[in-house]
Request: fold
Amino acid sequence: MSKIIDLKGSILSLTVLKLYDDRFEVTRDALEQKVAQAPDFFVGIPVVLEPQVALADATFLALLVEFLHQKRMIPIGVRTEDEQIKEQAEYAGLAIFPNTPDKPARPEKPRAASSEDEAGLKSALMIAGSVRSGQQVYAKDRDVVVMGSVNPGAEVVADGHVHVMGTVMGKVFAGSSGETGARIFANRLNPELVCIAGMYQLAEDIDDQFKNGFMEVRLENDKLVFNPDCLN
Amino acid sequence: MSRVIVVTSGKGGVGKTTTSASLAAGLAKKGYKVAVIDFDVGLRNLDLIMGCERRVVYDFVNVVQGEANLKQALIRDKRVDNLYILAASQTRDKDALTEEGVGKVIDDLKADGFDFIVCDSPAGIEKGAQLALYYADEAIVVTNPEVSSVRDSDRILGILQAKSRRAESGDAPISEHLVLTRYNPERVDSGDMLAVDDVVDLLKVPLLGVVPESQQVLNASNAGEPVILDEESDAAQAYMDVVDRFLGEEKEHRFLTAEKKGLFSKFFGK
Reply:
């Protein structure tokens, strides 16, 4: 049977109209001027309103929606956290978008952030000891060498190869930007997860015979291959 | 030269406060001037273990917020000379502490001639725990031989390396020590508990001592006495070893193997 509908989340790019003034007439005049500069450009574009000030006038949004329709724009929603504006938006038939911050801050910085300087030799990122639970290490555009172990709950991510002199008990990602030739080497591999260029395997999917002794993991035909004999 | 020691673990209920109390009392018995601070604002326990809960007039929060001075808040221990307790507040929460306020208290204690300042950290990795470890020179990580405790200790060790003042200013890192508590060799033999080597292997922190699981710890807590003062008990001897090793003495580790029960004790239970 063919599909009738399909409801899916998707990320679209929308025009956001930021409002810095709570007086409708002033806002209208400013918009009028803007539209006059390029009348065709604005025809039919969906617009999300983002008031930067409290809107004391309860009819503000309704009037603005009406005006935008006149100018043949299509207001679809409001981005706000303000309860009063949310109420106005409901009356005006606008969707409400939560005002999420642009980028959520990472809870904890990686202990050894990869150095950003582009010049010079991009040698491997060296981690002196073990990577502990909760720590993240990211080696951008290069390999990472961990002199100790990767403990449970720790994450080591590299765009290149990952070398671990101790035991991997946490998560390791090699080729994290898509480099399919990246490999993982570990003195012992008993990980929570291994991943190369997006192909991953969880602990329970890894055969126990691969959990002792030196191990290489590489990608062959989109499959992770565990190779204990890479040194021979 | 005063040293600030944080006793921490990540996980709760592993024996931080017991260890703080015994370490502080043990160091004081050696003749050092010691202050022990309860950072667990809102859930204060140290005063109970130290048996001074009825003598708390002003607490740590009062001092941090300038409502009392340090002399008024420090409680002198009645059993051991040179041992002082700074109790936490039970009625406030961890937001009552500030980095500057804690720093000032620690500086004042240093200026007062305290040799060791023991900071008893709350459980968790949030603000209270981070403030307790921020000014530390040494860290004692208390762990039980059990996977979740070891995992949490691993996490707190990472935070010690990243979020202390020493880490932020690029000084020599905090020196880390491990104390394994509630160790039960019989249960290790039967496979119910992690062995000491497994824990040290994972955490890679020098072992300061192993404290056996013992009824005396509970008895001492209930009696309001640091267990180290109950000199006959295994736990007290283990803590004395911890203190000696902390001060740089080389001592062989004890209480690691199950006692073989003789025929006599087999017959008579114990």
